[in-house]
TrEMBL record:
Listed name of the protein: UPF0146 protein ALNOE001_19140
N-terminal signal peptide: none
A matching Pfam family: UPF0146
Organism lineage: Archaea, Methanobacteriati, Methanobacteriota, Methanomada group, Methanobacteria
Annotated organism of origin: Candidatus Methanobinarius endosymbioticus
Record-stated family: Belongs to the UPF0146 family.
Amino acid sequence: MTMWNDLGEFIVNQCVEQTPINKQIKIEKNQNKISNSSCKIVEIAIGKFFQVSDYLSNFDSIELISTDINPGREDVIFDDITSPNMDIYENAKIIYSIRPPQELQLFIEDIIKNVGAKLIVKPLFNEDLTFNCKMNLKNYKKASFYQKEFS
């Protein structure tokens, strides 16, 4: 399993944790399904890196939306996060971004604050975060990333 699959697995697990108990969801082992639930996840600024989104797309009950200012595939939605289309992010439980440029990080933070979703960010190895909020460093198997909850 790669670091990217580990990050995808962590995101799936966050969907399970954020679903109300009355929906009783579970991940079915080795079947890539989350039972009885729908979890909206949005990736911001996907660029040309699809490993995590491809992993997440294997789960039937995840509504996955990938955005970029220059979509590289038909399944990626155009969005300029400096002037975002907030309809895209509405009701998202998790918003994540892999290697977001520093100049876009404050715009991502604004979106998260408006939506109230959990934020997961995987920066470049040697890059500092420029978010105004405190992000918590997380390690999950082979993946290291930052997370913040806004609610």
